[in-house]
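Recall from the previous lesson that a structure prediction takes nothing but the amino acid sequence as input. Here we apply that procedure to DegV family protein from Candidatus Dehalogenimonas loeffleri. The sequence below is the only information supplied.
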Amino acid sequence: MTVRIVTDSTSDLTPALAGQFGIAVVPLTVSFGKESFTDRVDISTDEFYHRLATQDTFPTTTQPSPAAFLNAYKKLSKETDEILVVTISRKLSGTFDSANAAIQLLEKPDCRVAVVNSGVTAAALGILTIWAAKQAAAGMGLAELKQAVELKSAETKPVMAFDTLKYLAKGGRVGRAQGLVGSLLSIKPVLTMRDGEVAPLTRVRSMAAGIDVLYNFVAEHQNIDEMAVEYATTPEVAETLINKLGALYPIENIYRTTVSPVLGAYMGPNVISVSVLGTGRQ
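The prediction returns the following tokens.
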């Protein structure tokens, strides 16, 4: 049987993309005060950012429970006896631990489940998961696939141009970029991820300059397996970037997605990013 792939909603896989590659998505939860919403199920990205702009309450997020993963495992165990779970970086969320805890609750010993800590999040997690699904469809078994995904995670990186780090700082996920929090308002931080946490890459004076950094990041790659562009509130900027990236990589192979509400709680509006799974130039 084909290995089935599970990820969490911080992968920013749209329902269409998840369906296209047969990936099961376990959602996190975002809350405004006492109101809680299942990520991408009860609240959309547009609805989330409308609330963010019109409410004084700062949003909080919650990882999926082991029971949520267990439900996914039970459903998939009717179709396969091998499941690979690829989660958000363990340094950013307890989702990895919930996914592992659920294995102990699965009352079907002939179904094997393995969990990979991707070390990333957002569309970087999404494209790593898509890559895993493609390898599974090609016949790769669970043990080999887990090892391959762990190796590929080192080649998977996001670069994110932020309009502000206010939300990332308030949410406690600013990581190694802490030194940029007090930057002048005219400075736009560009971040990446290193060793499973957010890290600074550079600073620019405009989002347009940030887009140039994203383009140059892609241009540094010699081999690209997967690529995605995502945005929060500026689809037109994303399309401009995608069209520009067409000089480096086939536009039809660039996945388009939006920041999930859960990640929006940390990224804030106007963020734009590109994620690449590939190797740099020698």
